[in-house]
Amino acid sequence: MGQILVRNINDQALETLKARALRKGSSLEAEVRRLIENDGKPSTEEILEEMRRIRAMTSGPLRSLSADEYREGLE
Description:
mainly alpha, 4 helices, elongated
């Protein structure tokens, strides 16, 4: 697991995070970890863009194997 040290955090932002963590019954560290992990996931748009990029690498619809080609591959 990685670690991170963040300096010069706005005092108001820090107090807001502390209060949020307290309301949830968790620690400031747990609240910040949850925020980082949730925001670190790719967005729907990022996933769709990656799918478009991969799709663009193919030249068109894939052809199914004929029965003879399939049998040949099993040998």
